Amino acid sequence: MSRVGKKPIPIPDKVQITLKAGHLTVKGGKGTLERDLHEAVDLNIGDQVITVTTPSEDRKSRALQGLTRSLVDNMVTGVHQGFVRVLEINGIGYRAEVKGNTLVLSLGYSSPVSFTLPPGISASVEKNTLVRLSGIDKEQLGQTAASIRSLRPPEPYKGKGIKYAEERIMRKAGKTGSK
Questions:
Q1: Domain match, 63 and 97 both
Q2: Does one domain contain both 18 and 40?
Q3: Do 62 and 95 share a domain, yes or no?
Q4: N or C end of the chain, less CB within 10 A?
C-alpha cells in the first residue's frame, strides 16, 4: 500500500488547478506549471484538497500513485512558495558573479566558466561564494544545481570545489612522510 500516495494534497488560496484529458495545469502567484499524468492514476480535485487514486491495486499502480502525488504536491508548492537551492564555493580565488542570465564562475581553470541559466531559474550571489538558485519547478532547479556542481565537484583532501550548502564532505588525510 502506498502511504505517500494516499495522503491528500492541500490546495492553498490563490492556486488554481485544472485537469483536462490527463493534462494537469497549476497556476499560482509565482507562475504556471503543466504536466501530463500517467493513465494508471486518477486525480480527484475537491474543496481545497487533491487526492490521487488508482483503479487497480497492482504494484505498478501503487508506485505511480506515490510518484504522482509527490509530483503534484511539488507543483502546488512551487507555484505558491517556490523552491531555493544554495551552493557554496570553496577554494582560494574561487568566486561567482551573475551577469544577466549567465552565471560566471572562477574555479581555478585558465579562464572563467560561463553557465547559462535555463528559463525559469534565477540566481543571486552573496559574498562571492554563495550561489542562491530559485525557481518554481523543483525538478529543473535540482538539475541546474547538479549541473553547476559538476563543473568542479568538491574534492576530499582540501574540500575545494562547489558543494550544496547542506552537503557534508568527508575529508581524507593526505600523504604522511615516513622515515
A1: no
A2: yes
A3: no
A4: C
Joined grid coordinates for residue 34: 503543466
Yes or no: say if 154 and 165 are a contact pair by the CB < 8 Å rule.
Answer: no
Query: What's the CA gap between 107 and 157, in Å, rounded?
Result: 17
Residue 128 falls within a domain, yes or no? Answer: yes
Task: Mention every residue, 6+ apart, whose C-beta is less than 8 A from residue 27.
Answer: 15, 16, 17, 18, 79
Place of cell 560566471: 104
User: Quick count: other Cβ atoms within 10 Å of Cβ 13?
Assistant: 8
Q: How far apart, in Å, are the Cα atoms of 137 and each of 10, 91, 179?
A: 18, 30, 57
Number of domains within the chain? 2
Question: Does 160 reside within a domain?
Answer: yes
**What phi and psi values does residue 16 have, to the nearest 5 degrees?**
-110, 135
The whole-number mean pLDDT for each consecutive block of 10 residues of the chain, a chain of 179 residues, reads 76 87 87 88 86 84 86 90 90 88 88 89 89 91 90 85 84 73
170: its cell numbers: 568527508
- What are the angstrom distances between the C-alpha of 93 and each of 44, 127, 147, 149, 179? 53, 13, 21, 17, 35
Separation between Cα atoms, residue 69 and residue 111, nearest integer Å = 44
- pLDDT at position 2, please? 57
